[in-house]
């Protein structure tokens, strides 16, 4: 069985997008802070998370708090992007195999949400 959160931290640290394939369940659902509908499936979730690596993961990105249960985790993060302080939460749920089945992202403040929306849209449009 996969140690989900340790594996997630390693993927983020290494910015290893290809490792997402082993961590995500085929029926994973991604919830974006800017898209109002759930995004089901491994392919779309990988696309969103890969784009997020490029937008969020820089030298200032760090997790500041972590709450976990048997199959759930809430990871609070902070990062500075283009001079804007972004505060957010990754809510992750995984199955008995340790594969992620649900990934929700929350971001604040509004200025940060607008910036993330712009940057993610640019990356996702190029990737389609």
Supply the key terms.
128 residues; alpha+beta; Nuclear Transport Factor 2, Chain: A; six-stranded mixed sheet
Question: Could you describe the 3D structure shown?
Answer:
- This protein has 128 residues and is of the alpha+beta class.
- It has one domain (4-127): Nuclear Transport Factor 2, Chain: A.
- The chain is 38% helix and 37% strand.
- It has helices at 4-14, 20-23, 42-56, 110-127; strands spanning 24-31, 39-40, 62-68, 72-81, 84-94, 100-108.
- Strand 3 (62-68) and strand 4 (72-81) form a beta hairpin.
- The longest helix has 18 residues, at 110-127.
Strand order of the largest sheet: 2-1-6-5-4-3
Supply the number of helical segments: 4
Helix content: 25-40%
What would you call the structural class?
alpha+beta
Shape, principal axes of CA atoms? globular
């Amino acid at each position: 069985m996969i140690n989900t959160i340790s594996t997630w931290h390693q993927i983020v640290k290494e910015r290893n997008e290809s490792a997402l394939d082993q961590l995500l369940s085929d029926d994973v659902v991604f919830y974006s802070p800017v898209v109002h509908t759930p995004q089901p499936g491994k392919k779309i979730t990988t696309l969103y998370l890969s784009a997020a690596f490029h937008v969020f993961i820089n030298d200032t990105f760090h997790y500041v708090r972590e709450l976990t249960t048997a199959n759930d985790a809430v990871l609070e993060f902070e990062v500075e992007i283009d001079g804007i302080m972004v505060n957010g939460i990754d809510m992750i749920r995984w199955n008995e195999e340790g594969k992620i089945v649900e990934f929700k992202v929350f971001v604040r403040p509004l200025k940060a949400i607008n910036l993330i929306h712009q940057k993610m849209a640019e990356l996702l449009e190029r990737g389609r």
